[in-house]
Amino acid sequence: MAATGNAELESNFSAYGKYSIKKELTLSYPYTQVNVKKTDDKLFSYYRKNSEGETIEKILSKPSGSLDLEICPILPMNLPARKTNDLMFLRFEKQVYVSKDSTIDVFVPFPIEIGVFVKDESSKGSSLLDCFTCEPLHSRFALYGFPDNGNLCMYAKVPVQKQTEPFIYAMTRISISNKTDNGVLVGKVVFPVTNHNMYYIENTAEAHIDDISMTIEKVSHKNIATISHVEYKPKENWRMAPSIEKKEENVEFVMDRGIE
Amino acid sequence: MAFEFLDTVVYEGVTIWSLIVAAIIMAAGVIVARIARMVFMKRFSYRVEEHSAKNIGKAIYYGIIIITLLGITTSQGIDLAGIMVAGGFLGIVIGFAAQSVVSNLISGIFLLVEKPLKQGENIEIPTENILGKVLEITTFSTRIQKFDGTVIRVPNSIIFNSILRSFSLSPIRRTEFDIGIAYKEDIDKAISVIKQAIKEKLPYALLEPEPAVWITALADSSVNLKVLIWHPRDDIGEIYPVGLKVIKEALDKEGIEIPFPQRVVWKAENK
Known about the structure:
heterodimer; A: mainly beta; B: 271 residues; alpha+beta; five-stranded antiparallel beta sheet
């Protein structure tokens, strides 16, 4: 299944991309309104309101008199607060059956946050000004394992093999290899996410994140899965989103506390 | 000779000159001890926990000082036997007097070895009614900051001999609420409403393990429920103060009654 956005929904909202603001800009995303206005020669005000009426206001100083923003998908690690180091827990709405000695690819919507980056005037880089989510229920936590030895993870329950909802999900491909002698049911995947890159197409709501490889083996009568990062090869018009994460080497994670 | 006075004996073969040499060796020992502690703190302390590093630094410092003192007594021909005998009786007296000090010292050493608590951990000592964050573990005592901001000093022997409740060994912890619903209400619906409210309104509540609702009693006025919510260990402040409000609002919205205590009174009538 290809990673496509919902065109009708998309058309009602603003898009990812770069915005150069001279006077005022208003952007609209699901449940979220963003307004950036020039208030003085060198000052801009930033205002955001979400569906629950919560507002954020910030003041930016820009000696050049113009403000360059980049609005793009980022990893969902910041809301409601940064509590986990790098683990993401995706719970599939329906379990996936994988036959013995086989490999299947499943496309899974990956929850995202939206980052508002400000281009630094003194360098070519950019800094995160604000981030928000268009689906607050994705900003949740879960424990992988047991209270005495588990890992706290960011958590989202996601459908499998479904189209992404714009501004709520990016798309990712999970390649599941079953190297055991029996068929297995996979109901969740837990993996370190900070070394994953996010990509998007400017002026659209399409986003993709690096893929994941999951290899299931039987060790001591128990199914364990080794999760590794697979680099996504974007096409020409895809652009890598800026990131605030510290990239690690390709870290593997072993799911030894259950895969169902 | 001008310096003959240096050979003056002040105590059983100890001359003024030997005292000066002893003072120089002692000063050198103190400098070496400080440098050794500084080198340890800069180069190696990051490999151990902060409070352990401080205590190891102290051990290095005082260890070198003691070795220096022993070196001085040996090199200057000071006979410790007499002092030891005289000090023996004094030692017994001081030993009794300093029993609690030694007890705290030994407990402090055991705390460093066993590590039942660490700097920065939230702990509770139920028997002493102490609940707070460990600021510092020193040789004799531990400083704990209570959640009202005050800092208390607890002797190490008390900590070592008490039951400790740690809130930092697990990445998550559970908060519980008790509520009651009226007998006429649908229990399954009430549980569903409570779970949904927690999922939507309490972002710090873990979704796996998911919030649980137990029926704990068929009480006098209500069906009593216990709501159990797991959350990241340091975020009790995001759950406990608002949990009951969220649950009550959700039950109110669905028209589920939380009853007052009530009693049915039967009036006897003469026929």
